[in-house]
Specification:
The protein is mostly helical. Helices cover 65% and strands 4% of the residues. A hairpin with a 3-residue loop joins strand 1 and strand 2. The longest helix has 27 residues.
């Protein structure tokens, strides 16, 4: 089967992680991974992004499948359960809003810029080399540090589950996947009520 352009989006995921390592302001590009899935699920009522365009899922498939870095074991049932997926989504939102709050404090002048990447929402890793100041407000950089933390943490979780289980095990409990699934279900309910 001939490959399509979107079969190479794993390169964009890899580039994103590399560019953010050297210049944290590239972390803003990660917002595309938030808005595009939402737009597709709202406009089309499908999980087309997850199934076709997700570069992170493609990267896990490549590393776990072609390069054999996955044990290819079945993911535990509790990780597939609604309570885990929805609980992880709520936890993810809490961490996301905490990141937005930290960004707000820097924009408001109530807090100084923290040049750290928080890995797994716990470990603060100094990341000063990736930001050297710009004409932009420090709050712009603070958002970038926080957002890169979210993206790097979710990538690390995805890599761990890829190694332990099947390559795309992260996709089972990915917050964006859960959110787009909820949107698709809501759209289906809306359609059935109109009919």
């Amino acid at each position: 089967m001939k490959k399509k352009w979107y079969d190479y989006l794993w390169i964009a995921t890899l580039l994103y992680l590399i560019l953010g390592f050297f210049n944290i302001l590239f972390a803003w590009l990660g917002l595309l991974c938030f808005f595009i899935p939402l737009i597709i699920s709202i406009s089309q009522g499908t999980k087309g992004y997850c199934n076709r365009y997700c570069g992170r899922g493609q990267l896990f498939s490549l590393l776990g499948g072609r390069f054999g870095l996955s044990r290819k074991q079945e993911i535990p049932k509790w990780m597939k359960s609604k309570w885990f997926r929805y609980g992880f989504l709520i936890f993810f939102f809490a961490m996301f809003f905490q990141m937005l709050w930290t960004t707000y404090l820097v924009f408001a002048g109530a807090s100084d810029l923290k040049q750290v990447v928080t890995l797994l929402w716990t470990f603060k890793v100094p990341w000063q080399w990736a930001y050297h100041g710009t004409a932009l407000h420090p709050g712009v950089a603070q958002f970038a540090f926080g957002f890169y933390s979210v993206m790097l943490t979710s990538t690390v979780l995805g890599l761990v589950t890829m190694v332990l289980f099947k390559p795309r095990s992260w996709c089972v409990y990915c917050p964006m996947g859960t959110m787009t699934q909820l949107i698709c279900k809501a759209k289906q309910v809306g359609k059935s009520q109109k009919a």
